[in-house]
Amino acid sequence: MSETEQIIARVLAGDQDAFEGIVTAHQRSVWATAAYYLHNRSQIAEIVDATFVKAYFALEQFKPGRSFDAWITGIARNEIRMTLRRLAAERAATKHYAERLAAEAALDEFERDRLDEMRASLEGCLANLTEEQRALIEARYAAEKPVAQIAAELRRSADAVKQNLHRIRGQLRDCLDRKALKHGA
After folding, report:
1. What is the pLDDT of residue 89?
2. Which of 3, 52, 46 is nearest to 23 (CA)?
3. Considering only Cβ atoms within 10 Å of each terminal Cβ, which end of the chain, N or C, has fewer?
4. Domain contains 148
5. Under a CB-based contact definition with an 8 Å cutoff, are residues 47 and 94 in contact?
6. Residue of 170, 185, 93 whose CA lies nearest to 133
7. How many CB atoms lie within 10 A of CB 54?
8. How many Å apart are CA 161 and CA 182, to the nearest integer?
9. How far is Cα 77 from Cα 30, in angstroms, rounded to an integer?
10. 22 inside domain
């Protein structure tokens, strides 16, 4: 019976502290296995720790007469495989998220540019209105006054104010359509 097998027998008999001898004897080979696949020191340390924890709880599955080093590095390779899969999935998710953010930023920039163009066109169209028409639009939409209040201030009926607003909106829509066609939008 090898020294490692004697330590395993002690651990299985209830001497948990004896497991430290296994860690001491095999830590270097487990570390080397993890370091071959991973280059981040903290990830390697996590693999080594997880390997020995799994080995501890699976000690009764070890078959005496076989290489303990091969058995424990097999556990380490499984841990490494799971870690590499997790890291690949995290990288893919991060890449997808970054691409999505970049696309949204580009869209936001496009939308801002488009909004700026529309605002400039609207300002140009408002400038073509008469002073009375602009005052009516500003009262209703900039000052957010109710139609009834505007009608009372202008001493007109609410229906007349609504009709005027409808006509002015039509003029603005036509003007914006012409500007859009002119700019190729």
Report:
1. 87
2. 52
3. N
4. yes
5. no
6. 170
7. 15
8. 31
9. 9
10. yes
Tokens of 136: 């009516």
Range of the domain at 48: 3-94
Q: What is the pLDDT of residues 22-72, one digit of tens each?
A: 999 999 999 999 999 998 999 999 999 999 999 999 999 999 899 999 999
Token pair, residue 81, equals 């495989």
pLDDT for the residue 184: 64
22 with 79, same domain?
Answer: yes
Q: What is the pTM of this model?
A: 0.53
- Give the whole-angstrom CA distance, residue 11 versus residue 5: 10
What secondary structure does DSSP assign to 69-107, as a single string? HHHHHHHHHHHHHHHHHHHHHHHHHHHHHHHHHHHHHHH
Q: What is the tally of helices (H) and strands (E) in the chain?
A: 7, 0
Read off the CATH number of the domain in which 84 is found. Answer: 1.10.1740.10
Per-residue pLDDT band at 93 (split at 50, 70, 90): confident
Tell me the HSE value of 172 on the side-chain side, using a 13 A CA sphere.
Answer: 20
On the question of pLDDT at 105 being above 80, the answer is no
Question: Cα 151 vs. chain centroid, distance in angstroms?
Answer: 52
Determine the angle formed by the axes of helices 3-12 and 19-37, rounding to 10 degrees: 110
